[in-house]
Amino acid sequence: MGSANDTGINIPVIDISSPSLDVAKDILEAASTYGFVFVKNHEVGIPPEDIQGMFDLSRKFFSSPTEVKAECSIHSSKSGKNRGWLPMHTETLDPANQKRGDFKEAFNIGEFLNGKANQPLPAPLAAEESRMARFADQCHALCDKILQLFGAALEIPSSEGGAEWFSQRHDRAKGPSGSVLRLLYYPSIPSPPDQTDIRAGAHSDYGSVTLLFQLPSQPGLEILTPSNTWAPVPVNPTSLPTAPILVNIGDLLSYWTNGLLKSTVHRVIFPQPEEGKQSEDRYSIAYFCHPLDEARLVPVPSRAVKEFQSAEGEGRKVKVGYGGGAGEADEIMTARDHLNRRLAATYGLKEEKPEAT
């Protein structure tokens, strides 16, 4: 297990190509310490050429004329909830501390069915629909491996589902989920117009597990450390020719484990350009893996979780979310309820109430 030691934090780089209890415990330790971990990208990962192909597609899309991107705006009813193109300043991830929305564009793609997107796609993306569907499948498969490692490390009894406890609740054959493949573009600007302006405001992720793909020489991601300071996250903390994939824990794994797994607050800042050089555009790709919409957020049946809860105090309640989305560990919600709550805060919308049953 390697580490990113030059950042002031110690985010491990873990090889999960040969799953074992030791590997599972390594990834659990990283998730319970910082909420972030690097996974080596080789046999169990995603081919580098597929990742690069997605970045090439992303550049092509975001360089398209505004009218092309706007055909499938997130504000359009035809795109569907949390899907489509987000223009600059549409999303405000830290509304309590931001005067205006994030300095970024994005395109959200929901789940695919039989290789087809369940939403309209603009021409540059529609031409590569099968490529995007394959990439989303690869991402989900990797998330499933990681979720099984968590199940093994938490020693969930076989009578309760064992190592499959989490992955069962992410089985796409059983129903829809809020999983999203997101293309991100942060245009370079000479300098932030205001001290509160930021590329992506401080937030925690809404789902279970996030995979983040970054490009070399495009820093800016920071995480909030246990000492309440911001620390940069490297793009490639190893000397390996293939950069590892950054994995972080979302709200729901933290919720399920009463905070044992950390849903760490993070942000994307305007990095200081090197002297004599202009700042660069930043591109990244995120896969937000969510449970099935109807998955109930009940405590995971793990002795380790119970022991953690006991050590923290029986009255402890997990605060889920950042900048407006909050929940408590004894409030039973579904994954869809939680996502609706977080999206309402992010976009300044009225929260949707679940239908009466």
Walkthrough of the structure:
The structure is a single chain. The protein contains 9 helices and 15 strands. Helix 1 (21-33) crosses helix 5. The termini are far apart. Strands 1-2-3-13-10-15-8-5-4 form a 9-stranded mixed β-sheet. A 4-stranded antiparallel β-sheet has the order 9-14-11-12, with no helix packed on it. A two-stranded antiparallel ribbon has the order 6-7. Mean pLDDT is 86; it is low at 1-7, 314-329 and 351-357. With 357 residues, it is of the alpha+beta class. The chain is globular, with a radius of gyration of 19 Å.
Task: Summarize the SSE layout with pairings.
Elements: E1 2-4, E2 11-14, H1 21-33, E3 36-39, H2 48-62, H3 66-70, E4 84-86, E5 105-109, E6 112-113, E7 116-117, H4 123-126, H5 129-153, H6 165-168, E8 180-186, E9 200-203, E10 209-214, E11 221-224, E12 230-232, E13 245-249, H7 251-256, E14 266-268, E15 282-289, H8 303-312, H9 335-346
